[in-house]
Specification:
Its EC number is 2.1.2.2. By secondary structure, the protein is an alpha/beta fold. Helices cover 34% and strands 25% of the residues. The chain has six helices and ten strands, in the order E-H-E-H-E-H-E-H-E-H-E-E-H-E-E-E. Helix 1 packs across helix 6. The structure holds 5-O-phosphono-beta-D-ribofuranosylamine.
Length: 203
């Protein structure tokens, strides 16, 4: 199963995917890693694993659509079956989302539908929540709003701060993403008009 992984930062989720592939628990290959930032730490992780990298700086494009079309042109050369957003910090246009409908997956550090957008850990703490976590979903045109595939929960404990909480959530992200991608690799996970299907049944 061919993956394209999009990143903007340190790429610890990318690393978890690469480790799962190396270990054999994820039967896939990362065909390409694309970053909108030339200094993203995840690019080095890709190079270490011998994976092709592409950098496209969004600031060099006149519009979101022009940037997104350039990404599509780059990615499609690698024939990805699933496009994996792993800390990719750009909002995608309908053009991009439609091109990869049913193939585009994101991980978000909250228990969606709570806390779409940024600063999710601080927001969960400020709200006095007792639990927090991460969500994996198919991407639709609504930001962090697509149909949910899986979630992992963590308890919020006394004296948690955004960093301590983020660290615990990330551990769960690194477990959950390879698992969901393995469902894709096994052709068990898809999206249709009714929503997410696992083994042909609505989730
Ligand atoms: C993760 O917390 C992910 O949920 C969010 O961005 C972060 C990416 O971290 N969308 P990394 O680059 O994988 O380390």
């Amino acid at each position: 199963h061919r993956l394209a992984v999009l990143i903007s930062g340190s790429g610890t989720n990318l690393q978890a995917i690469l480790d799962a592939i190396a270990e054999g628990s994820l039967q896939a290959q990362v065909a390409v890693v694309l970053s909108n930032k030339a200094d993203a730490g995840g690019l080095e992780r890709a190079r270490q694993a011998g994976i092709p990298t592409e950098v496209l700086d969004h600031r060099q494009f006149d519009s979101r659509e022009a940037f997104d079309q350039a990404m599509i042109d780059k990615l499609d050369v690698y024939k990805p079956e699933t496009v994996v957003l792993a800390g990719f910090m750009r909002i995608l246009s309908p053009l991009f989302v439609r091109h990869y409908t049913g193939q585009l997956i994101n991980i978000h550090p909250s228990l969606l539908p709570k806390y779409r957008g940024l600063h999710t850990h601080a927001r969960a703490l400020e709200a006095g929540d007792r639990e927090h976590g991460c969500s994996i979903h198919f991407v639709t045109e609504e930001l962090d709003g697509g149909p949910l595939i899986a979630q992992a929960r963590v308890e919020i404990v006394a004296n948690d701060n955004p960093e301590s909480l983020s660290n615990r959530v990330q551990i769960r992200e690194h477990q959950l993403y390879p698992l969901v991608l393995q469902w894709r690799a096994e052709q068990r996970l898809s999206l249709d008009e009714q929503g997410v299907l696992l083994d042909g049944k609505p989730l």
